[in-house]
Amino acid sequence: MNRLCFCLLFIGVAVASSSVVPNRVAADVAPVPKTIVPKRMDNVTPRNVVFILSDDHRYDAMSFMGHPLAKTPHMDAMAKNGVHLKNAFVTTSLCSPSRASILTGLYTFRHRVIDNQRAVPDGTVFFPQYLQKAGYQTGFIGKWHMGSSNDDPRPGFDYWFSFKGQGQYYPPGPNYTINENGKRVPQDGYITTVLTDKAVNFIKDNADADQPFFLYLSHKAVHGPFTPEPKYKSSLAELPFTLPSSSALLSDNLRNRPRWLLDQRNSWHGMDFPLHTGSPVEAFYKSYCEALRSVDDSIGAVMQQLKDLGIHDETLVIYMGDNGYMFGEHGLIDKRVAYETSSRVPMLMQCPEILPAGTVVDEVVANIDIAPTVMQAMGLEKPSHMDGQSFLPLALGQDVPWRDYFLYVYYWEQNYPQTPTHFSLRGDQYKYTTYYGLWDTDELFDIQADPMEQNNLIYDPQYADVKQQMQTRLYDMMDDLGGMEIPLNPPRGRQQNKRLRKRGGVKSADFPEAMIVDEPLRKELK
After folding, report:
1. Could you give the CA distance from residue 176 to residue 180 in angstroms, rounded to a whole number?
2. Which of 18, 292, 380, 471 has the most CB within a 10 Å radius?
3. Is residue 240 a contact partner of residue 70, using CB atoms and an 8 Å limit?
4. Local confidence band at 464 (pLDDT 50, 70, 90 cut-offs)
């Protein structure tokens, strides 16, 4: 093994769990430090790390998962030759909050980047700052999005190539530019290809450096409007497509679903009025999977460059999506909600020198775990203020304590008022979600027996104790982790609040059946 060898003696050290105490969560929330002081781990020689992030890639849209539309040979190869972390989630299923959790290792209510309009608060610390301070070469290429009004280089990166906000699949005009290390340069072509070329060059330029490198390749794709490369456009048009069973229109509310959910079906984020268009879900989904093919090509190009330089087997490569995406599930499109197809993401990892091929990790891992994982691979201790934990021990088959429950939050946005603030707790069997500030129903699902989350158990007397236990644990975790205050944002941007008249847009949904009574509950007032 060369200078980038990775001694794994430290892997046996127990990973702290966020929920190993039966009733209360033992969590000392350390403040974010004002100074960056990396601490090296004993007996560890750091290795190169490439982290590849895509946008809006749902957890099952990979061909090795049996997806009917996705064609992802390079992702399939990562799963075959490395590790598939099959239960990967995000703490908030929305671009900026998820990316902030990746870069800080913190829950959303701690880093407080709660939506796509809020700039990163002063004092925020990104984990690449530790890598840079330790002397490693760091590069950021692609979509940053947090603080979308500018694309100035952010702290922690020696090389910077990024654009404002969502960016563009193709340059919208001859004067459109991207920020490369503080200078304006033109976008020369399709954005996924442009970013891939920059990533390959970064690897080539830093492969022989005295210190290892960290590359953060952050794709715009497959964010809408879904725009495939010409070579993939309409390549999936003739494939058969079937809407998910959970997309069926409910004519009543006997299944006790939230009113907001049934009303959202006819909205910007609903399948009856998707993005305020008349387009069918099928057209969106196929264009999405066609655009995804270029992201898969990008992974292949990165892997090939590592092979060409002779550093493929020793380099840790991690791939994930920043949030899930729905195409008709629960009658919705897009993300934001706590349902599995929204909050769950693909995650793959490969490093042939240390990770056994074909490994599958069942434990719930999350975006808050990326920072500790990368730091461990590069021989640095996790800073005490981070909420996440390194999942390298899980990939190596180590028997370590891990989280029993996963916490999800989403904060209402005036721009998209159809989705309420909600807090959700996911255990191994049950998921409990409460919708804050609404006269509506909460939800409890047995996700083992009901993985598509269709049977709300919240009013079933057999599950009354489960509901109470989950609710108590949810608020205990929020309290212990500093999440009992709701961060607010001043209004900014347009409200996507319209409904389509011809699809029942005038009237709201029925109340859940369990909330309706036929007779007065009190005979008289006293």
Report:
1. 13
2. 292
3. no
4. very high
Measure the CA–CA gap between 515 and 209, rounded to whole angstroms. Answer: 65
Cβ proximity of 177 and 198 under 8 Å: no
349-399 pLDDT per residue, tens: 999 999 999 999 999 999 999 999 999 999 999 999 999 999 999 999 999
**3 state DSSP class of 49:** strand
CA angle 284, 289, 293 (to 5 degrees): 145
As a 3-state breakdown, the chain gives helix, strand, coil percent values, each rounded to 5, of 25, 15, 55
Beta bridge partners of 359: 83
478 contacts 462 by C-beta, under 8 angstroms: no
- Alpha carbon distance 82, 70 (integer Å): 20
404 by Cβ neighbours in 10 Å (0-12 / 13-18 / 19+) ranks as middle
Residue bearing tokens 């830093």 = 206
Q: Which tokens sit at 432? A: 């409990």
Q: Are strands 213-218 and 49-54 parallel, antiparallel or unpaired?
A: parallel
Contact 290, 24 (CB under 8 A): no
- Relative to beta strand 159-163, strand 137-143 is parallel
Q: Which two tokens stand for residue 159?
A: 């090389």
Chain position carrying tokens 């309409």: 234
| Nearest CA-CA partner of 493 in 109, 55, 143, 116 | 116
- Secondary structure tally for the chain: helices H, strands E: 11, 19
Cα(43)–Cα(474) distance, integer angstroms: 39
| H or E element at residue 283 | helix 281-308
If we measure between CA atoms, which residue out of 361, 380, 460, 471 comes closest to residue 427? 471
Q: What is the 3-state secondary structure (H, E, C) of 400-433?
A: CCCCCCEEEEECCECCECCCCCEEEEECCCEEEE
Is the pTM higher than 0.90? The answer reads: yes
CA distance 323 to 343: 6
The rounded distance, in Å, linking the Cα atoms of 305 and 299 is: 10
C-alpha distance from residue 29 to each of 18, 32, 99, 122, 378 (Å): 11, 9, 21, 19, 24
pLDDT, one tens digit per residue, over 269-313 is 999 999 999 999 999 999 999 999 999 999 999 999 999 999 999
Q: Can you list the alpha helix ranges (DSSP code H) found in 4-116? A: 73-81, 95-104, 108-111
DSSP per residue, 381-403:
PPPTT------HHHHTT------
Element (H, E) at 89: strand 88-89
Q: Any idea what DSSP says for residue 11? A: G
Q: How far apart are CA 49 and CA 212, in angstroms?
A: 8
Strands 430-435 and 443-446: antiparallel
Which residue carries 């370590």 as its tokens? Answer: 400
| Separation CA 433–CA 339 (nearest Å) | 9
Question: Angle at Cα 117 formed by Cα 114 and Cα 119, nearest 5°?
Answer: 80
Residues forming a β-bridge with 334? 326
Chain-centroid distance, C-alpha 127: 17
18 pLDDT exceeds 60?
no
